Prior knowledge:
Layout: H1 2-5, H2 12-24, H3 31-43, H4 53-56, H5 64-70, H6 73-82, H7 91-96, H8 117-131, H9 143-152, H10 160-167, H11 171-189
Helix pairs in contact: 2-3, 2-8, 2-11, 8-9
Amino acid sequence: ALDTRDTETEGHSERVAAYTMAMAHRLKLSSEELNDIERGALLHDIGKIGVPDSILYKPGPLTPEEWEIMKQHPVIGYRMCMKVDELRSAAPIVLHHHERWDGGGYPYGLAGEAIPLGARIFAIADTLDAMTSDRPYRKALSFAEAREEIIRCAGKQFDPEMVKLFLEIPEEELRLIRELSLANRQQRAA
Length: 190
């Protein structure tokens, strides 16, 4: 639903879920845990439905007041997920997907292992997709450049152990995930 509303990020949720699952499968988690992580990754930005278009699509920087409204989207998304029995176990990823390993994230400033595992995995996948996607204000980085930035942010923005896990994924696998997402998007548009 959000991809329909926000064409700039079309396909983002699918790609981020695929990157997240490429990491999660390497952890040998249960099928239930994997399903929860995948659902959380797919729905991570569902709370943006509650953010006014004037903020969501603002071409320039947000004011401090607008930024406070934008930072509520994880809480809005969490509340939405908690209303659906099948999504409750995915809700923590939706709520905590902007937390940072060093405690500098939002909405609660959680740090370290207080952040749910799925959200720690997801944070890397989300950043990878953002950096390797074209934006109106900059061209996409290569996967190699994005990897270097993720390594640089280990221990600050990201769980260092999850960064090590991410680095196990061959660049070719990441590229294939991206290409499949773009092909699926083109197929749906036809």
